[in-house]
Amino acid sequence: MPLPNGNISSTAEPKIAVARPVESSPAGYLSSAYAESLSEYGSLRHLPFSGGWLIERPIPGSEHRDAMGCYPLFTCLDWSGLGEDLEQLSERLVTVSLVADPFGRYSPEQMEKCFDLVFPFKLHFVTDLSQPLAKLVSRNHKRHVSKALRQVEVERCEPALPFLDEWVALYGFLRERHGVRGLSAFSRQAFARQLAVPGLVMFRARAGAATVGITLWYLDRGVAYYHLGASSPEGYRLHASYALFWHALNFFSSRAQWLDLGGVPGLEDDLASGLRQFKAGWATGTRPAYFCGKILQPEAYHRLCSGAGAGTYFPAYRAKYEL
């Protein structure tokens, strides 16, 4: 991959035009298998009109329930059916909240007809794979790629499940390093299920016999979604993530139209964030991921919010449990 002069050459296969059909075999975040990987957080509910999935949860201190979209993104087959799905849930749930897939076939105006609250939650870095790889990657990233490829070897792991222990160990280091908690902490059981989800693609970086980095992606309807990645301390030193992303770009260039690299943690877009700069170096642009909230039972909602105080968290009654 690195040439003698330090430049990067692409080993991607010839491009194949990939259509994004309205319907497809469920994969990635759309798959029931992915929803089941989050079942420890609540009861799964399939939405018959849109084809998406929600997670129902009891509301602490009450007899009521609410629902959230699957983490990190809600997606579905037919966005026009989402309004009817919500109407069907009005007697069962107090609220529904979700973060909509940036590549979903909807408009903000369409979502505003379904939800009470719709706003850009965060920007996702995206990569248009119709562009030559050597041109879309930043100059600084190319230098890191050249260096990393001289120090690590990258392979696709298919199937991925035999590498569960290695992945859990790497993610455990990341969890401690960054204080990851909540939904994104993920249990071993959740990861075991996620590695078996249709559309999962795993890349592993090795330095000698040691695994120093792994990235997980989901390929669904022409978009490769970056799910998670983690490296060991040695992997950080060897810049393994650059080699892993370079291999991912080459692999998906003939299999997808777009990469969704996700956003950065938190609600503030820190321009100096190392993760932001890393993702931006592979991206050709950004797309907003919209947060959407719906109050299905107004009277119950306001009772539950009593004493919660003013704030921007939705649903407000969960702020004290989840912040």
Structural write-up:
With 323 residues, the chain is an alpha+beta fold. 29% of the residues lie in helices and 25% in strands. The protein has an eleven-stranded mixed β-sheet, sandwiched between helices. Helix 5 crosses helix 9. The chain is globular, with a radius of gyration of 20 Å. The model is unreliable at 1-23 (pLDDT under 50).
Task: Give the N-terminus to C-terminus distance in angstroms.
Answer: 45 Å
Mean residue pLDDT: 89
The main sheet orders its strands as 1-2-3-4-11-5-10-9-8-7-6
Question: H/E series, N to C?
Answer: HEEEHEHEHHEHHEEEHHEHEHH
Total helical elements: 12
Major sheet size, sense and barrel closure: 11 strands, mixed
Relative helix content: 25-40%
Overall 3D geometry?
A: globular
- SS strand fraction: 25-35%
Extract low-pLDDT stretches: 1-23
Kindly name the structural category. Answer: alpha+beta
How many runs of DSSP E, i.e. beta strands?
11
Radius of gyration of CA atoms, rounded to a whole number: 20 Å
Q: What structural keywords apply?
A:
disordered N terminus; alpha+beta; 323 residues
List the helices and strands and how they pair.
Blueprint: H1 32-36, E1 43-46, E2 53-58, E3 65-69, H2 82-88, E4 95-99, H3 108-114, E5 117-128, H4 133-136, H5 139-149, E6 153-157, H6 164-178, H7 188-194, E7 200-207, E8 210-220, E9 223-231, H8 233-237, H9 240-252, E10 258-262, H10 274-280, E11 285-295, H11 298-305, H12 319-322
Parallel strand pairs: 3-4, 9-10
Antiparallel strand pairs: 1-2, 2-3, 4-11, 5-10, 5-11, 6-7, 7-8, 8-9
Helix pairs in contact: 5-9
